[in-house]
Amino acid sequence: MKKLDKLIIKSFLGPLVITFAIAVFVLLMQFIWKYIDDIAGKGLSIGIIMELMLDASATFVPMAMPIAVLFASIMTMGNLGERYELVAIKSGGIPLWRTLLPMGIIVAILSVVAFLFADYVMPSAVLKYRTTLYDITRKKPALNIRPGEYYSEIDNFVIRVNDKSSDGKTLHDITIFDHRKNPGKPDVVSARYGMMQTTPDERYLLFTLFDGCSYSETGGNGEQDEPFTRILFAKDEMTFDMGQFAFDKTSENVFQGGYQMMNTSQLDSNIIRLEQKRNDDIAKRANLFRLRDSLPQALSSSLPADINSLLPSMDKLTRSRAIGAAAARVERLYNEAKVDTQADTSQGEYIRRHYIEWHRKYTLSVACIVLFLVGAPFGSVVRKGGLGLPLVASLLFFVIYYVIGMIAEKAVRESAIGTLGMWISTLVMLPIGIYLIYRAVRN
């Protein structure tokens, strides 16, 4: 390997790694901000949060890779041009394509790695983070009894405390409403103060109450005074089951089978199966309508050719009933056709989502090469290194690529264009890269 190749690779790998890490971090922060309300305040362990963040970060790798390649290529070639190293390379008779070759080999390898990652690693990561996120959203908020508020997160109980000491365990002026026996007429326990603590395994919450009394209505029909019991106590204990606050891990089999959790071969087989099922459903509906149409034709063989001649011979009531029955049949057939159309539309959209996911695995990996062909010649043309221009230019190019891709994906999902529309953003950026290469060679 020549010294020039080593210099270019060294200059390229540094910004590539740093930009990749920053891109993953930014996408992860966006993910956390989106689900912060579901995560915060539930007493989750660090291990569960780290597991969620790690699995979510893995799903951002195919998206972060093109960003890193684009920025690193602009910055590398911009630095070489700004320091006149690119001029020295050209004056030595080395063509531009030879200068870009070391970076191009690395980008090609990264493109293959991005595809393999999206095809094998990302489906598993999506399955894991979706399962963990589902468990987190189902989990109740962590126990947090605030003074002056009615706390009702524990099933069949409502707890109110007037004050809480700084140790977080000593409570004052406690009132507990027990709805287990009769939700409409709860038993009431009140105490002047008490202690709150959990068992070592955090399975149960233990209230030790002092100087209080309990009230309960033991019967009656509501039409007269009902028996009433009051018990004074110096010390009493109440235990609450905290199992409902535990983090229960759902089996991954519940979510397995989604199109985002399949590789390309699984998507291929699933698309074939879904399309066959859709065609069978269309054939069944067509046969059903054909059968229904044949019944009136068989019954009409005994009727005169001009069916309208029957109407004058009918009395008013019979005519009204016949017209009403015909209108009801037409409306029923229309509603059935409408439902069938909606079902077919839903099936078609679900199949298109499989196609979108299949094409996405290829477009994101090819994007590494296409954006490299845009970024490298752009950097050699502008000859500006550092962070300023490369960052702004890479963001601008990627936003154009991303926005066009999102518009095209929505159009494909809504069947406005074919599934090959997923490649529109690539086809838009490719001519830009070719033009920039032409300008860089002519410079």
> Number of helical runs?
11
What percentage of residues falls in helices of 4 or more residues? 55-70%
Mean pLDDT: 81
Order of helices and strands: HHHHHHEEEEEEHHHHH
Look at the helices and sheets and give the structural class: alpha+beta
Quote the beta fraction.
5-15%
* Gross morphology: flat
Largest sheet: 6 strands, antiparallel
Residue runs with pLDDT of under 50 for 5 or more positions = 298-303
Q: What is the oligomer described by this structure?
A: single chain
| Rg over alpha carbons | 35 Å
Number of domains: 2
Strand order of the largest sheet: 1-2-3-4-5-6
Task: Give the distance, in angstroms, between the N- and C-terminal Cα atoms.
Answer: 27 Å
- Per DSSP E runs of 2 or more residues, the count of β-strands stands at 6
